[in-house]
Amino acid sequence: MSALLLGLLAALCWGIHDLSVRYISQSVSVIASLMAVLVFGAFLQFALVAAWGDFGPMSGVAISFAIATGGFYLLAGLSMYAAFQRGPVRLVAPLVASYPALSVTLAIWRGSTVSVWHWLAVIAIGVGVSIVAAQSDDTDTTYPAPGPTIALSLLAAVGFAAAFALGQYATEISDEYTVSLIGRLTAIFVLTTIALISGKSIWPGVQALPLLCLMGLLDAVAILSVVAAGGLPNAQYASVAASVFGLLTVVLAWAVLKENMAPRQWLGCGVAFAGIGYLAM
Questions:
Q1: I need a surface site. Which of 46, 65, 182, 230 has the fewest CB within 10 A?
Q2: Nearest CA to 245 among 180, 140, 188, 160?
Q3: What pTM, to 2 d.p., does this model score?
Q4: What is the per-residue DSSP string for the chain?
Q5: How far, in Å, CA of 86 to CA of 134, rounded?
Q6: Is the Cβ–Cβ distance between 122 and 100 less than 8 Å?
Q7: CA 66 to CA 168: how far, in whole Å?
Q8: How far is CA 56 from the centre of its chain?
Q9: Model pLDDT for residues 31-67, shown as the tens digit of each residue
């Protein structure tokens, strides 16, 4: 499977995951939701490591990258949730969706060659996602000051770019299943520490557990897909393709929840997938 297809698989999983967040966020706190998602995803990753993992010793560099992956992924998740709580979507989504540009920049820094046309395709994907997300915003809502929202959104973008890049670097020298598991366990440990210090509960309630279990499995498959691309050519395109999860969330809401899709949103879909199509050539 190519890096691009792995990225699209991740986008689909995160799209369904985010659609589920629309339900769960009404009754469960961010920390409790994230903790349940991380823990349930860890069960899947334990099974994958037991079935196909490499039980040989990992180098210190690979372990360090895997731990950093989990830390940055948690940073990205917490920042993005906090940014969307402040809103608006039309401000947050384009900034968070800018992380593929950072991913491609990191790939160039490591020696990859990216043409001008590939850069244009990456930009098209970001623009398409932004158009779809911006049209979903409720313009009648009053939002807090934009400064902290911008900072949180950019922090989420940096977190995603760093997490995906570090995870892929670790996969180049170690097993992707073990790398993903170490990253997830790191995120669980750090989030538990945050919950203890802040006095926040990590128990989501019995009713929410089935949906959170599904979300955890989807999240685990998504992050594993992006990390696993590290051993493939043009690994950075997995991160780029994964960024369309916000677009897929809106499309799934249209298909499943019967929410309206404006003509401009369909145009955004076309622009984003045209960019993906070019990268697949």
A1: 46
A2: 160
A3: 0.83
A4: --HHHHHHHHHHHHHHHHHHHHHHTTTS-HHHHHHHHHHHHHHHHHHHHHHH---SPPPHHHHHHHHHHHHHHHHHHHHHHHHHHH--HHHHHHHHTTHHHHHHHHHHHTT----HHHHHHHHHHHHHHHHHHHHTS-TT-----HHHHHHHHHHHHHHHHHHHHHHHHHHHHS-HHHHHHHHHHHHHHHHHHHHHHHT------TTTHHHHHHHHHHHHHHHHHHHHGGGSTTTHHHHHHHTTHHHHHHHHHHHHS-----HHHHHHHHHHHHHHHHHH-
A5: 15
A6: yes
A7: 9
A8: 29
A9: 898 899 999 999 999 998 888 877 677 889 999 999 9
pLDDT digits (tens, 9 = 90+) for 214-267: 999 999 999 999 998 887 888 888 888 888 877 787 788 788 767 677 888 888
Distances in Å between the Cα of 178 and the Cα atoms of 130, 175, 181, 195, 239 are 34, 6, 5, 26, 19
Give the CA distances from residue 236 to residues 105, 132, 152, in Å, rounded to whole numbers and listed in that order.
9, 23, 23
Copy the structure tokens of residue 281: 């050539």
Distances (CA, A) of 35 to 43, 77, 222: 13, 11, 17
Helix axes 245-256, 263-280, angle to 10 degrees: 130
Q: What are phi and psi of 177, to 5 degrees?
A: -70, -45
- Residues found in the chain: 281
Four-CA torsion 215, 217, 219, 221, nearest 10 degrees: -150
pLDDT for the residue 136:
65
CA distance 85 to 105: 29
- Amino acid letter for position 104: V
